[in-house]
Design a protein that fits this description.
single chain; alpha+beta; Heat Shock Protein 90; 5-stranded mixed β-sheet; 44% helix
């Protein structure tokens, strides 16, 4: 309950920020330690794994600071990590934080190259989504937040199966 409440609060804060920013642009002065937020996001998703045989790892090679509120990074990473957890039945989810950005790799159901081009659009879900809950809005929100801050987010299929999501800060 506490985790869901925190994620809901962060999402509302990010949506309000998007609404305000579309009128006046991003605010200066806030910075976020991406590695710290990534660690919090990872821990908040461990309960969702339940008894599934999934290894969720975090590798930090740098502690990038970005000019954005923690809530924005949290919403973006919650969506990327949350999708990896949702669509991985077993195997590995690896989150890598570097100076350039964050990569989330999973060994889940995966996506096609064609789907990778459209999954950031509103109400679009991948063919492997099946009956999994979701409205196809999470990645659309990620796309809007990235556009606001000048970041890029991309999805691609992994040759060995699963998907790779990358968030680049420059």
């Amino acid at each position: 309950i506490e985790r869901a409440s925190k994620q809901s609060t962060e999402l509302i804060a990010a949506l309000l920020l998007l609404s305000r920013s579309e009128r006046q642009g991003p605010q200066d002065g806030e910075s976020c330690d991406v590695a710290k937020v990534a660690a919090e996001v990872i821990e908040s998703h461990r309960p969702q794994i339940g008894g599934r045989p999934i290894e969720l790892t975090l590798e930090i090679s740098a502690h990038p600071e970005v000019a954005a509120p923690d809530s924005v990074i949290a919403v973006v990473l919650n969506n990327l990590v949350g999708n990896a957890v949702k669509y991985t039945k077993e195997g590995e989810i690896r989150v890598v934080v570097s100076r350039e950005g964050v990569i989330v790799e999973d060994s889940g159901a995966g996506i096609t190259a064609q789907e990778a081009e459209t999954l950031f659009d509103r109400h679009v879900r991948g063919s492997s989504a099946g009956s999994t809950s979701g409205a196809g809005l999470g990645l659309a929100i990620v796309k809007r937040l990235c556009a606001l801050y000048g970041w890029t987010a991309e999805l691609e299929p992994r040759p060995e199966g699963g998907a790779r999501a990358s968030l680049r800060f420059s």
